[in-house]
Design brief:
The structure is a single chain. With 243 residues, the protein is of the alpha/beta class. It folds into 2 domains: 11-120 and 174-243, 3-Layer(bba) Sandwich (FAD/NAD(P)-binding domain); 123-173, no CATH class. Helices cover 33% and strands 23% of the residues. The protein has helices at residues 2-8, 15-21, 37-51, 92-101, 125-134, 139-145, 175-188, 233-242; strands at 63-65, 82-87, 106-110, 121-123, 146-149, 153-156, 162-165, 171-173, 192-195, 199-204, 209-213, 218-226. The strands form 3 sheets. The chain has a 7-stranded mixed beta sheet, with helices on one face. A 3-stranded antiparallel beta sheet has the order 4-8-5. A two-stranded antiparallel ribbon has the order 6-7. Helix 4 runs parallel beside helix 7. The chain is globular and about 65 Å long. The N and C termini lie far apart (57 Å). It holds the Pfam family Lycopene_cycl.
Length: 243
């Protein structure tokens, strides 16, 4: 009985699963926030479905072009026309904050909560200084968000030699800290946050675009920025057009 019970046990976890199961911290819903083994399997399934998709596969049409200006639109009491609406908050929060600092009326649409993950992002100091030059992060704050620093990095392929690189992706920064700073800065500069809302469709007129949300609401703007990542429904529609 013991031998049969052991024989009926499930397969042993792979090395990948064992490593990823040791990663601490909760997942967050935004882009890059899912880094557990189950999340990896979900991404693998999505990638497989993309690779196996037939040429005639139907992709939801999210963006629709409408000729002429926007007319007979009920903006409702207290509603406004945004200069820019950014779809996707984890990376979108950076460009949204920069534009808000320029005096534009900016909103962010995020299906979950705008929150950075616990696992580090890798970046170069030169790239971080670009954010400082834009004016949305100070040099003192950069030092606060840096979790690790290392040099040099070894790159190479087996039997093909090695290259040692200095100051390339050699910083580990805390997404949780930097996204929190950006979110507070964005809101304090007058930016609007629409969390827990998914994008359903976009109607692009000659003068404005209208974004329809999953909760039935709609937001008009002059410019739409897609920061929803590789699996953005807008990207999928564009790929279908070019394929």
């Amino acid at each position: 009985m013991r031998a049969r019970a052991l024989g009926e046990a499930g397969p042993a976890p792979s090395r990948t699963q064992m490593i990823m199961d040791k990663i601490s911290g909760e997942e967050v819903g935004c882009a890059g926030g899912a880094y557990s083994y189950s999340a990896l399997k979900r991404l693998d399934q999505i990638w497989s479905s993309i690779c196996e998709a037939q040429a005639d596969s139907k992709v939801p049409e999210v963006v629709t072009r409408v000729q002429g200006p926007l007319v007979d639109y009920d903006f409702g009491d207290g509603s406004e026309i945004f200069d820019v609406l950014v779809c996707g908050g984890t990376l979108g929060i950076f460009v949204a904050t920069a534009l808000s600092y320029k005096g534009l009326r900016v909103g962010i649409i995020e299906r979950n909560i705008i929150k950075g993950r616990e696992q580090e992002w890798n970046i170069s100091r030169e790239e971080l200084m670009g954010i400082v030059e834009v004016g949305i992060l100070s040099e003192e704050e950069i030092e606060q968000i840096i979790s690790s620093e290392f040099n040099p990095n070894r790159c190479g392929f087996e039997s093909k030699g090695e290259i040692w690189l200095e100051n390339i992706l050699n910083l580990g920064i805390s997404p949780a800290k930097v996204v929190e700073i950006m979110k507070e800065r964005f809101v304090s500069s007058g930016g609007a946050v629409f969390e827990g809302k998914s994008l359903s469709s976009i109607y692009v007129h000659d003068d404005l675009a209208v974004l329809n949300l999953s909760d039935g609401g709609s937001l008009p703007c002059r410019l739409v920025i897609d920061a929803m990542g590789n699996f953005s429904p807008i990207v999928q529609q564009v790929l279908l057009i070019f394929n």
